Amino acid sequence: MDRTPQHGFELPRLTIMLRHALPRFVEGVIAPVAVFYAAFALLGLNGALVAAVSWVYGGIAWRYWRGHGVSAMLVLAALGVTVRAVLAAVTGSPVVYFLQPTLGTLLVSMAFLASVPLQRPLAQKVATDMVPMPEAFLKHARVRQFFLRISLLWSLVFFANALFSLWMLFNESIGVFLWVRTSVVALLGAAAVAVSVAGFRRCLRHVNGEAEPALAAEPRPAAA
């Protein structure tokens, strides 16, 4: 007889998740800002735009050379950066380059918010993309409630991110915008991640605690 708890699930260790996420954060958030700002200070706007585009396509080429898969999302992101760079070069305004992703963040906030009343929490989709979870676990009422609340939390985080970024973009220099905005967004995101992980661990303890008595109450097979 299968004696696995119906709703049991173990979260991978936090250090494992950090080792998985940290290189992607540095590659996708910190490094592009450093590349753009260094080129902007040394070469001006057009040089910074060329450096930003080269960084993205260089990353794709590196993955291809190493034999790693290049996802369609990464290709679309590269095309988006290219379009933004061309528009910024034509208008001569770095604001144009950063406006689109900021507005995109606002749309992401709206998507997280809309998923709550629809009872299709976007946070659950994001979480299961990173850590596969059993279907029975995801259907548990406490788990569903957790992901609805966390979707609302991330909606507020992205909304605050977008508003702060827009204010910085139109009221501060590009240098201040890049570093202050990146630092604030990183801190805000880290706090939201900490709250999400702590809440998920608490949810796990409750769900797994319910599964253990149910398992203990199951009748044992009679001895032959």
Automatic annotation (TrEMBL):
<feature type="transmembrane region" description="Helical">
    <location>
        <begin position="146"/>
        <end position="170"/>
    </location>
</feature>
<protein>
    <recommendedName>
        <fullName>DUF3159 domain-containing protein</fullName>
    </recommendedName>
</protein>
<keyword id="KW-0472">Membrane</keyword>
<feature type="transmembrane region" description="Helical">
    <location>
        <begin position="34"/>
        <end position="57"/>
    </location>
</feature>
<feature type="transmembrane region" description="Helical">
    <location>
        <begin position="96"/>
        <end position="116"/>
    </location>
</feature>
<feature type="transmembrane region" description="Helical">
    <location>
        <begin position="176"/>
        <end position="200"/>
    </location>
</feature>
<keyword id="KW-0812">Transmembrane</keyword>
<feature type="transmembrane region" description="Helical">
    <location>
        <begin position="69"/>
        <end position="90"/>
    </location>
</feature>
<keyword id="KW-1133">Transmembrane helix</keyword>
